[in-house]
Each structure stands twice: as structure tokens, then as C-alpha cells.
Design a protein that fits this description.
Helices cover 23% and strands 21% of the residues. Strands 1, 2, 3, 4, 5 and 6 form a six-stranded mixed β-sheet that branches. A hairpin with a 6-residue loop joins strand 3 and strand 4. By secondary structure, the protein is α+β, with helices and mostly antiparallel strands. The chain is built from three helices and six strands. The termini are far apart. It is elongated and about 40 Å long. The chain has one domain. The structure holds zinc ion (2 copies). The site of one zinc ion has 8 residues, from loops.
């Protein structure tokens, strides 16, 4: 039966692919989270929302120039400094060395950082 032997190859290739996890890189996993953290530069409010919700304005002062927060990992003491992204790497708030890696904070880390959970309605998302 010609064809039978060939037909199994795509299946094996697919299984091998799933096995090695090539569909999702380590970088993607590091950047995956269950929440979005924000900082308001005006009133310094820290808050976070559900992963699906991208806040339109600050829940405390209603201003729209809020900034999304990411974690900056310090290579020296493993401390994570939470700060708005987009300005290069910040200095570690604990030891002052320049951080070298980014991570997306998860809900538990945002709570520890001092952020409060806000609903979509509170941050202007209908
Ligand atoms: Zn604010
Ligand atoms: Zn440090």
C-alpha cells in the first residue's frame, strides 16, 4: 500500500513538535501573565486589571496617561523592580545596579508590589 508509510510522517513530526514545546518559547512564557499592572504618573496610584482588560484611565484621578508596569530583574540580587516600560532598563531599587531582564508581573506579584485590583468599569473600559 503506497502512501500508508508516508502518511505517518506528518503525524510524527507534529508529535515531536508538541513534545519539544516549539510552539511556545521561553520568552513567551516569561512574558505571559494573568494580569496587567499599571502606574499613574500623576497620582502614583498602583493598580492592576484582568489580563483581558487594558485600562483607559486611572481609577483614582481619571487621567489617561497611565503607564503599564513590567518587572526589571536584577542579575546581582534577583530583586525585581516594578516600573513603567519603554525607557530602557532601570536601576535596581535595592542595590542600584542596572537590571538586565524584563518580566511581566503576575497578579500575586502585583499585589505584593501594592497594586489594587480594578474592574474594567473602574478604568474606563466598557
Ligand atoms: Zn491617577
Ligand atoms: Zn539589585
Amino acid at each position: 500500500m503506497p502512501g500508508t508509510g508516508l502518511g505517518i510522517f506528518p503525524l510524527l513530526a507534529l508529535m515531536a513538535c508538541l513534545g519539544c514545546g516549539c510552539g511556545k518559547s521561553q520568552v513567551d512564557q516569561a512574558l505571559d501573565s494573568d494580569a496587567n499592572g499599571f502606574l499613574c504618573p500623576d497620582c502614583k496610584a498602583k493598580f492592576y486589571t484582568d489580563r483581558k482588560v487594558f485600562a483607559n484611565h486611572c481609577p483614582a484621578c481619571n487621567k489617561g496617561n497611565i503607564e503599564m508596569v513590567v518587572g526589571f530583574n536584577c542579575p546581582a540580587d534577583k530583586h525585581v523592580t516594578y516600573s513603567p516600560r519603554g525607557r530602557g532598563f532601570v536601576a535596581c531599587e535595592q542595590c542600584g545596579k542596572v537590571t538586565s531582564a524584563l518580566s511581566i508581573p503576575r497578579e500575586a506579584e502585583l499585589k505584593t508590589w501594592g497594586a489594587e485590583r480594578k474592574t474594567a468599569a473602574e478604568v474606563g473600559v466598557e
